[in-house]
Amino acid sequence: MKQKTTHIDFYLIGISNHTTPQWSNDAVQLIQKSTIFSGGKRHYQLVKAYLPKIHKWIEISGKMDALIQQYKTIDVSIVVFVSGDPFFYGFGNTLQRLLPNAQLKALPYFNSLQLLCHKTQTNYNNLKSVSIHGRDWSALDEALINRNELIGVLTDNKKTPAAIAKRMLQYGFNNYSITIGEALDSDTECIEQLHLLACTTKIHNALNCVLLKQLTPKNKPFGIPDATFVSLENRANMITKMPIRLSTISALALQNKNVFWDIGSCTGSVAIEAKQQFPHLKIVAFEKRTACATIIQQNIERFSTPGIEIIIDDFFNLNLNSFPKPDVVFIGGHGGRLKELIQTVYQLNPLVRFVTNAVRTTSSSVFIETLTDLNYTISTNTILLNNHNKISIHTAENIK
């Protein structure tokens, strides 16, 4: 019995930068019998001489809504040219997101990081691939904090190899070499391995990708000694002490959380410890003391912990809707307005997890009473740090 042929809405052909396209026989036959093609402007320059004389080209230029509407007017298969592998940070993923019912078929080529590994004979079994192309730094920050030994990076015209090298040096990741692959597979291909410092002053072809190779291990402490933090002038004791800090991190239960707010961050110690152990987190550190802006940044750099957003302002004066909504909050300071703070955060997310460290019984009472009224379940661990400092770590969870 002959199997019924499924209609394909999009054929995704991965291409390289070769002057003469390197296509399989299947791809050549598909191109010859098709009439509707799509891709970026650079792709068209590479393939237009090989397309049928009568054809229509739909340019992919970044305006996705208009592009998808145009695609919907087409009732035949569309051949889309993409760079390398369409499902490696590629247009195939975009189509699946915007047209989830579309039928796709890929004829891929090597992605740029694979090519760079091939050309440098790099074993990429354990390669950690990240993209900062049109994105923020978070994926690269996470890979660096995780101490990945081999990191492949897709760059863009702002987050260049030089910008990457500068950021890595700023946060103390000087234990990597950087290999840049420019215009791979083209007539102007160039590959070079540099020390990070040398890379900071170089300009590279905009069409590039990067391999970061760890040269020596970098220590990642679990529990940072208090004395190593930069502190407020004449206020060296104004820091959440390491045993309390680690117990607090445990109470925060950050494993499956996405956004963590550290309110009353002071030196940034809790935020830094949390980011060190859970680098996937989006962390916002709120502090109203202006002197703490420099202190937190210095500590973030000292302990190689990029990716913490520092907000210096009175928490109650901020438009909190402009920040990513928290699913866990640590209250390190509240300026005597603990109940108001809790209610404000609760309005943003009624399922947010609260943790605070209370020295005064009044703070404990307000925390417990306010959150009990909001139907939270409270758990408390009390730690006697020394003969004079008893601290209660309160956790409030709302499971609905």
TrEMBL record:
<dbReference type="InterPro" id="IPR035996">
    <property type="entry name" value="4pyrrol_Methylase_sf"/>
</dbReference>
<dbReference type="GO" id="GO:0009236">
    <property type="term" value="P:cobalamin biosynthetic process"/>
</dbReference>
<keyword id="KW-0808">Transferase</keyword>
<keyword id="KW-0489">Methyltransferase</keyword>
<keyword id="KW-0949">S-adenosyl-L-methionine</keyword>
<dbReference type="InterPro" id="IPR014008">
    <property type="entry name" value="Cbl_synth_MTase_CbiT"/>
</dbReference>
<protein>
    <submittedName>
        <fullName>Precorrin-6y C5,15-methyltransferase (Decarboxylating) subunit CbiE</fullName>
    </submittedName>
</protein>
<dbReference type="InterPro" id="IPR012818">
    <property type="entry name" value="CbiE"/>
</dbReference>
<keyword id="KW-0169">Cobalamin biosynthesis</keyword>
<dbReference type="InterPro" id="IPR006365">
    <property type="entry name" value="Cbl_synth_CobL"/>
</dbReference>
<dbReference type="GO" id="GO:0032259">
    <property type="term" value="P:methylation"/>
</dbReference>
<dbReference type="InterPro" id="IPR029063">
    <property type="entry name" value="SAM-dependent_MTases_sf"/>
</dbReference>
<comment type="pathway">
    <text>Cofactor biosynthesis; adenosylcobalamin biosynthesis.</text>
</comment>
<dbReference type="InterPro" id="IPR050714">
    <property type="entry name" value="Cobalamin_biosynth_MTase"/>
</dbReference>
<dbReference type="InterPro" id="IPR014777">
    <property type="entry name" value="4pyrrole_Mease_sub1"/>
</dbReference>
<dbReference type="GO" id="GO:0008276">
    <property type="term" value="F:protein methyltransferase activity"/>
</dbReference>
